[in-house]
């Protein structure tokens, strides 16, 4: 699916934002569908931290699926929901850096 007008291609970009708990994050979307992130608990990013963008939809998985983030990519903003395997859910928003 082509990327719609007004939607940013996130590969090779970094985004900073917060979640509904007020915690700050920085996400870097590397080529090849891998991403790294900085959180209040440290810096992470490995082969099991993956992302995929289809049109304006983004799916990120941490630690091979421990947490899944689903977001909508707009013009310089991503926002969405997330959940983990323990059943916890939250919202998140990030702006392009």
Task: Report on the architecture of this protein.
The N and C termini lie far apart (25 Å). With 97 residues, the protein is an all-beta fold. The protein has a 9-stranded antiparallel β-sheet, with no helix packed on it. It has strands at residues 13-19, 24-30, 34-39, 42-44, 50-54, 57-62, 67-73, 77-84, 89-96. It is 0% helix and 59% strand. The chain has no helices and 9 strands. Strand 5 and strand 6 (57-62) form a beta hairpin. It has one domain: Beta Barrel (Lipocalin), CATH 2.40.128.
List keywords for this structure.
single chain; 97 residues; mainly beta; Lipocalin; nine-stranded antiparallel sheet
How are the SSEs placed, and which strands pair?
Blueprint: E1 13-19, E2 24-30, E3 34-39, E4 42-44, E5 50-54, E6 57-62, E7 67-73, E8 77-84, E9 89-96
Antiparallel strand pairs: 1-2, 1-9, 2-3, 3-4, 5-6, 6-7, 7-8, 8-9
User: What is the N-to-C succession of helices and strands?
Assistant: EEEEEEEEE
- Alpha-carbon distance between the two ends: 25 Å
| Biggest pleated-sheet summary | 9 strands, antiparallel
Number of domains: 1
The count of helical stretches stands at 0
* Structure summary, number of beta strands: 9
- Overall helicity: under 10%
How would you summarize what this structure contains?
The protein has 97 residues and is mainly beta.
């Amino acid at each position: 699916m082509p990327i719609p007008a007004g939607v940013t291609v996130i590969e090779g970009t970094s985004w900073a934002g917060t979640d509904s708990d007020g915690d700050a994050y920085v996400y870097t979307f590397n080529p090849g569908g891998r991403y790294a992130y900085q959180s209040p608990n440290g810096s992470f990013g490995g082969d099991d931290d993956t992302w995929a963008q289809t049109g304006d939809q983004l799916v990120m998985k941490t630690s091979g699926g421990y947490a899944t983030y689903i977001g909508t990519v707009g013009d310089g903003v991503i926002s969405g929901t997330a959940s983990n395997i323990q059943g916890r859910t939250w919202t998140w928003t990030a702006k392009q850096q």
